[in-house]
């Protein structure tokens, strides 16, 4: 049986048994939070539990490394939509120790792409058209600095609602311990 068949079989039982009922909520986050965090599989259940979040409490945006690189990219757009249209009023950027984006080698990633069937001419065309694959595939060397950089992009965004606290944290992927990198409330007070 393929993985998709297993998932669909399970899903039929999930719906038939009304197992979804315990997860019913609205599209508006109860705790009014928007969280940008890493897609690391260890955080799927750990992060919400470590933050005392249940289904419906927060908007959680995941990507590789919890990195916001482009002020007008998809991640920042999602943050702004959560703040303006979905009743969120605080932002949390949460990186984690032992992240796969730490020290990632873009050349190695491109090599893996080729091993998995991407043709050299495709890589060449992308590079020739101005796509900086090395920059696009680069991670970070220090998770604390990465969180600080992402927080700065959000805090300094021209469309961020004034007085929005933007916090930066690091979570340990085994224990769930949260480490404060930057406190959004203190930043607003100092600015104020």
From TrEMBL:
Q: Which residues bind Zn(2+)?
A: 38, 40, 96, 99
Does the UniProt entry include the keyword Zinc?
yes
**SMART domains named in the record:** Pro_CA
**GO molecular-function terms, A-Z:** carbonate dehydratase activity; zinc ion binding
Please name the Gene3D superfamilies in this protein's record.
Carbonic anhydrase (3.40.1050.10)
Q: Which reaction does it catalyse?
A: hydrogencarbonate + H(+) = CO2 + H2O
Q: Which residues form a coiled coil?
A: none
Q: Which CDD domains match?
A: beta_CA_cladeD
- Write down how the cofactor binds this protein: Binds 1 zinc ion per subunit.
**In the record, which residues are listed under signal peptide?**
none
EC main class here is lyase
User: What keywords is this UniProt entry annotated with?
Assistant: Metal-binding, Zinc
Q: What is its EC number?
A: 4.2.1.1
Cofactor annotation: Zn(2+)
What does the similarity note say? Belongs to the beta-class carbonic anhydrase family.
Q: PANTHER family this protein is in? A: CARBON DISULFIDE HYDROLASE (PTHR43175:SF3), CARBONIC ANHYDRASE (PTHR43175)
Q: What is this protein called?
A: carbonic anhydrase
Q: Specify the species.
A: Cohnella endophytica
């Amino acid at each position: 049986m393929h993985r998709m068949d297993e998932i669909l079989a399970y899903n039929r039982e999930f719906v038939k048994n009304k197992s979804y009922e315990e997860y019913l909520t609205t599209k508006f986050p109860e705790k009014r939070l928007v969280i940008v965090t890493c897609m690391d599989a260890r955080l799927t259940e750990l992060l919400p539990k470590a933050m005392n979040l249940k289904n419906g409490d927060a908007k959680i945006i995941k990507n590789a490394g919890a990195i916001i690189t482009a002020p007008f990219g998809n991640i920042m757009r999602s943050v702004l939509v959560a703040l303006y249209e979905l009743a969120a009023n605080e932002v949390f950027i949460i990186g984690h120790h032992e992240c796969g984006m730490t020290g990632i080698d873009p050349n190695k990633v491109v090599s893996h792409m080729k091993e998995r069937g991407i043709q050299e001419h495709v890589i060449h065309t992308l590079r020739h058209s101005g796509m900086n694959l090395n920059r696009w595939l680069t991670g970070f060397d220090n998770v604390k600095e990465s969180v600080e950089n992402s927080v700065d992009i959000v805090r300094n965004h021209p469309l961020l609602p004034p007085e929005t606290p933007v916090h930066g944290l690091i979570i340990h992927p085994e224990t769930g311990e949260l480490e404060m990198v930057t406190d959004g409330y203190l930043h607003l007070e100092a600015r104020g």
